[in-house]
Amino acid sequence: MTAAERREQITAGIVARTGISEAMIEQLVHAFYAKVRKDPMIGPVFGSRISNWEPHLAQMCAFWSSVALMTGRYHGTPMVKHMPLPIDAAHFDRWLELFEATAAELCPPEAAAHFIDRARRIASSLEMGVASGQGVMLGVGERYRRSEAGAVQ
């Protein structure tokens, strides 16, 4: 079996188990980022860096297709893009809160659980990367927190 055939087999299994489709991913991504853009905590972080939302949303649909369905559509470097951002655990918690609520609102339970599991892993990984980028190595169970002066608490 080739790698492409194996990927197709994995994707088909996920689709059969969860009901996730590219259309569902698009709906989830667009609804989630509509909430993000209005959010007083994380909206400004995105808004200060994204002027044209359509390419970003297309890229996020490809990202979630790769994450949720293992399609391999996304070819980017999310860690590199997140490391210099002025964010910490509170921002990741808010991101997850909005994402989880959106997934629960729009997706069947099995699909929502699948998306949420992956979102939690992504948030944890990115938080560790952001901390590392600031010279902080987090231990198991530790969270990255910035003080108002920019130092880690």
From TrEMBL:
Heme binds at H56. Keywords: Heme, Iron, Metal-binding, Transport. Gene3D superfamilies: Globins. The keyword Transport applies. GO terms for molecular function: heme binding; metal ion binding; oxygen binding. CDD domains: TrHb3_P (cd08916). Pfam families: Bac_globin. This is Hemoglobin. It comes from Bradyrhizobium elkanii.
